[in-house]
Write a structure and sequence with these properties.
single chain, alpha/beta, 9-stranded mixed sheet, 11 helices, FAD-dep_OxRdtase
């Protein structure tokens, strides 16, 4: 049965949900606060589609490591800024409770299964729907290690040894010649040939072009949604405020919240408490000339494991860019989370790290900086499905909390929620519907 589905949120999660629903024959109205799609967390993220590197942040060794990071200054991968906010402390308490091996393995298995399904769906959409111009490449991913003990631990923890090749320093440089300047510091790396890179913002634009061509898609741009209300167990309408200040009602059949961090306030009046924390991350985008030498900038995706910095070559027929992303700040202070402020000291530290790693790539002082707020759950897996609270509205679905893996997990999340709406899946988390063998075959 064809449905009319309203989606709140115009990032990669909302657009992937919309695309999956339109493919399934439904009509979609997407509501977003911005003029264009993908203006928040999806705008300039790391660009890596690391389907086999989706382990959650919460792990047994993280609390001790975090203490060391907190003393490391602006280059620290993680920084905590405590606030007098009960929501932050609740999230931190739940996060620390999840920092043990059993919870980590269970969460990692869910996220890995979702990621592998996402890679399959991404392939279907690219090929069958002829998505283009979003800098997609499958050149693989190389995770470099500067410490031999860390390399040994990473090698032992591989989830897909058949696709994760352990290399020594010489082999790493042979594979990616731009790492030549790091030769004295490298112990080796792990290369996954099937991982991918792409431009998330361009992917969102490509999805919307297909949606607009379908004739079953409408976007209400520059539109804010008031916190939700329900009557008789359903959400009948949304209260909207348009860019010119006009207020209007939008009738709802089925509703998906894909609004990232904004979801918390939207559903609070319904008695639904979402444990989401906006984890702030940073990126740089450096334009690369077409004749950039191979020894200057990486062609494959590179992750510096010790420094927690990722590098992705975003190359289209029109332009080539190097995306550099890193860092997690816990404790977002800005009152307007639509436009998180840039921390110039963090940006300066990121410029320095990139310059040290790839000194010939270009002038990183001219790279465009960006900051985004990644909506994260304490355990790691996203909130995907109908709300679990008693008395929840029958026509409400959630697709939020993907953290730093929104682009990686978006296609699967959209596909699963579209399948559930199409086939009236029972209430509950859709992560439980993933085939068990996807995780079991990889040793979880």
């Amino acid at each position: 049965m064809q449905r009319h589905v309203t989606i709140i949120g115009g990032g990669v999660i909302g657009l992937s949900s919309a695309h999956a629903l339109v493919r399934a024959g439904h009509c979609v109205t997407l509501i977003d606060a911005h003029v264009e799609v993908a203006r928040e967390t999806s705008h300039a993220n790391g660009g890596q589609l690391s389907y086999r590197y989706v382990a959650p942040l919460a792990d047994s060794g993280v609390p001790l490591q975090a203490i060391k990071w907190l003393l490391a200054g602006n280059e620290a991968p993680l920084r905590l800024r405590p606030r007098l906010a009960p929501s932050q402390w609740r999230w931190m308490t739940q996060f620390l409770a999840a920092c043990h091996q059993r919870t980590h393995r269970a969460s990692a298995a869910q996220m890995l299964a979702l990621a592998l399904h996402s890679q399959q769906i991404m392939t279907q959409w690219r090929v069958q729907d002829a998505l283009e111009e979003f800098a997609w490449q499958q050149r693989g991913k190389l995770v470099i290690h500067r410490d031999s003990a860390a390399l040994d631990r990473a090698a032992a923890a591989r989830v897909a040894p058949q696709d994760q090749q352990v290399l020594d320093a010489r082999q790493c440089i042979a594979l990616e010649s731009s790492l030549i300047h790091q030769q004295p510091h490298l112990s080796g790396g792990i290369f996954s040939a099937s991982d991918e890179t792409a431009d998330c913002h361009a992917f969102c634009q490509a999805l919307e072009r297909k949606l607009q061509a379908s004739g079953r898609y409408t976007r209400l741009a520059s539109t804010r949604v008031a916190p939700l209300s329900a009557h008789d167990g359903r959400i009948a309408h949304l209260e909207l405020t348009r860019a010119d200040g006009r207020r209007e009602r939008h009738a709802v059949d089925t509703l998906i919240i894909a609004a990232g961090n904004h979801a918390t306030e939207l559903v609070r009046p319904l008695g639904i408490r979402l444990s989401l924390q906006p984890l702030k991350g940073y990126s740089l985008t450096l334009p690369l000339p077409a004749d950039t030498p191979k020894t200057a900038a990486p062609r494959i995706s590179v992750t510096d494991a010790a420094r927690k910095v990722v590098y992705a070559d975003l190359d289209t027929r029109k332009s080539r860019q190097l995306r550099v992303a890193a860092m997690v700040d816990i404790g977002h202070r800005e009152s307007d989370s639509f436009h998180p402020a840039l921390d110039e000291k963090r940006i300066a530290a990121l410029r320095q790290l990139a310059s040290e790693t790839f000194p010939d790539a270009g002038d990183f002082s001219q790279a465009t900086p960006w900051a985004g707020l990644r909506p994260s759950t304490p355990k790691g897996p996203p909130i995907l499905g109908r709300p679990q609270q008693a008395g929840r509205p029958d026509n409400l679905w959630l697709n939020v909390g993907h953290g730093s893996l929104g682009f990686t997990l978006a296609c699967a999340s959209g596909d699963l929620i579209a399948r559930a709406i199409s086939h009236e899946t029972r209430p509950g988390t859709l992560l439980d519907t993933l085939p068990d063998h996807l995780a079991e075959q990889l040793g979880f």
